[in-house]
Structure formats: structure tokens, C-alpha cells
């Protein structure tokens, strides 16, 4: 049985009118351990939906496997919190990677990731500019992301992201972890062989360097966020040819890199 993505709890809510006991909706927190060929790779704290997509997106974006077809079989044990994956086409550096984990800047340090100094060099630069957005498009798509964020409206405890192309929003995902939401998007695209040409990304949270690299590996030309990018993310976006747009709120926004794609 799949775990629930939300739960309810009786709380005391205070306001200027006083206090009252109410039922509140809370985002669930689920510990998922990825096991490859019987060995534990890592444990991430996530929202328990689209678990297969999450695992596939993580493994490919981190370079542990090259493509979805590298996985021979995959099985989720919801009760124990494991996803069992078998593959005979792992990155040759896999054994070394297991010894070089470190905490990323993900929310609360909920996952340990494999991030390399040469990641930017190994990530292909996006040279094409097939995506062009008008300023009003940036506001429109960000409003669309926020309006579709039902679990966030209920709990206030998740991040939201969406993949778009010129026809509109292709799919959206949410998770308590920013990285997880993006891996769910990427994993779904890989498993269903969706075209990633001419895509851009909507994001509710901070654009960190890890998020920027994941967007680059997907092939997104633009990243739109209601929050801020970090200095390293801006540097990487400049190097990799990605347009970064932040602070999309109150009828204004900032374009940090490659402004040619906006307006």
C-alpha cells in the first residue's frame, strides 16, 4: 500500500479573535532508500509519490547511470521504504562515488548527493535559443504554477516545479525537497520518452547550483523562479547558456543571465 502524501492533525490556531482547535493538513515526510544490485546507495527524504520517477531522475541526473534503459528491473517496497534497482551498466566510478558523499544545500540536508567539481565541464552547453518568452509570459506561467499547487495550498510545506514548452505546461510535480521535485519531472520524461527540445522550467524555490545543473542536464533553456538564484548558479548558467529569471512576483522580475530569450 502506497503511503499518503498528506496527513491531518488536530492543532490550536491563534488569531486576533482568539484560539480554536482545528484539523490541519500536513505534508508527509517519507524516507526512501535506493538500493542498487542489493547495496544501499543513499537515503533521501521525500514526498511519497512518483517514487520510480524520482529514483530514475536522480540516478541519471547524478550520472550513476546514463539512461533509463540501463535499468534491468525496478521494484518499490513501500512498507520498508526501499526501491530495489538492478543494473549492469553503472558508472565505472560508482564504487568511488559511494565514498565521496556530502551534504548539498537541499532543504534541511535531506539528501546526500554526488556532486563533482567537473560537473559544469561534463554538462553540455545549451547553444540554441529556440525558446523565446515575453515578459508577460513569465508572469503567466508563474501564476499557472502557483494556481496548480494544490498540495502547497493545503499544507504550505512543499516545493513545486513544472516543465513547459511553447504549447504550455507539460507536467508539474511537488515534493518537500526541491531537488526531488525536479528529479520526478526528469524521471517521468525519461521513462515515457518525452521530447525535451525547446523546454523551460518553472520553479517555486531557490535556484541553487545543483538545481541549475539538473536543469541543464534536462536541456531546459530557461529557468523561471519566484525566488532567488545563488552566485554559483548564476556563474554556471552563464557558462552553460541558460537564461535564469528570479523574483517573479509583484509584477516585476530579474533576469540574471542570457536575457536574449526574454522579450
**Could you give the order of the helices and strands?**
EEEEHEEHEEHHHEEHEHEHEE
Q: Using DSSP, what is the number of strands? A: 14
CATH-scheme architecture of the largest domain? 3-Layer(aba) Sandwich
- Strands side by side in the biggest sheet: 10-9-11-12-13-14
Structural class: alpha+beta
Low-confidence stretches: 100-105, 108-118
Number of separate domains: 2
CATH class of the largest domain: Alpha Beta
Largest sheet, described in full?
6 strands, mixed
For the CA atoms, what is the radius of gyration? 19 Å
Helix content: 25-40%
CATH superfamily of the largest domain: Cytidine Deaminase, domain 2
What would you call the shape? Answer: flat
Describe the model.
The protein is an alpha+beta fold. Mean pLDDT is 90; it is low at 100-105 and 108-118. It is built from 8 helices and 14 strands. Helix content is 28%, strand content 32%. Strands 10-9-11-12-13-14 form a 6-stranded mixed sheet, sandwiched between helices. α1 crosses α6, α6 packs parallel to α7 (209-218) and α7 (209-218) runs parallel beside α8. The chain is flat and about 55 Å long. β9 (159-165) and β10 (168-175) form a beta hairpin. It starts with 5 loop residues before the first strand and ends in a 6-residue tail after the last strand. The chain folds into 2 domains: 30-118, Ubiquitin-like (UB roll), CATH 3.10.20; 135-261, Cytidine Deaminase, domain 2 (3-Layer(aba) Sandwich). It is found in: Cytoplasm. Belongs to the FdhD family. Required for formate dehydrogenase (FDH) activity. Acts as a sulfur carrier protein that transfers sulfur from IscS to the molybdenum cofactor prior to its insertion into FDH. It comes from Alkalicoccobacillus plakortidis. Its main location: cytoplasm.
Amino acid at each position: 500500500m502506497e503511503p499518503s502524501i498528506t496527513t491531518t492533525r488536530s492543532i490550536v490556531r491563534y488569531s486576533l479573535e482568539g484560539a480554536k482547535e482545528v484539523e490541519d493538513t500536513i505534508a508527509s515526510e517519507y524516507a526512501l532508500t535506493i538500493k542498487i544490485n542489493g547495496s544501499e546507495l543513499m537515503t533521501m527524504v521525500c514526498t511519497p509519490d512518483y517514487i520510480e520517477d524520482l529514483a530514475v531522475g536522480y540516478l541519471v541526473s547524478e550520472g550513476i547511470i546514463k539512461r533509463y534503459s540501463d535499468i534491468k528491473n525496478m521494484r518499490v517496497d513501500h512498507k520498508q521504504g526501499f526501491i530495489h534497482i538492478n543494473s549492469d551498466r553503472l558508472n565505472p566510478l560508482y564504487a568511488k562515488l559511494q565514498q565521496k558523499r556530502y551534504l548539498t544545500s537541499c532543504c534541511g540536508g535531506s539528501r546526500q548527493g554526488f556532486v563533482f567539481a567537473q560537473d559544469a565541464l561534463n554538462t553540455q552547453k545549451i547553444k540554441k535559443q529556440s525558446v523565446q518568452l515575453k515578459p508577460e509570459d513569465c508572469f503567466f506561467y508563474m501564476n499557472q504554477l502557483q494556481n496548480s499547487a494544490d498540495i502547497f495550498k493545503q499544507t504550505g510545506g512543499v516545493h513545486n516545479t513544472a516543465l513547459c514548452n511553447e504549447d504550455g505546461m507539460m507536467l508539474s510535480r511537488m515534493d518537500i525537497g526541491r531537488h526531488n521535485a525536479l528529479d520526478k519531472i526528469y524521471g517521468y520524461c525519461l521513462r515515457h520518452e518525452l521530447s525535451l527540445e525547446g523546454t523551460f522550467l518553472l520553479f517555486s524555490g531557490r535556484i541553487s547550483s545543483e538545481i541549475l545543473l539538473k536543469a541543464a542536464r534536462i536541456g531546459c533553456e530557461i529557468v523561471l523562479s519566484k525566488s532567488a538564484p545563488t552566485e554559483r548558479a548564476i556563474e554556471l548558467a552563464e557558462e552553460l547558456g541558460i537564461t535564469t529569471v528570479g523574483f517573479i512576483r509583484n509584477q516585476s522580475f530579474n533576469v540574471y543571465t542570457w536575457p536574449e530569450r526574454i522579450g
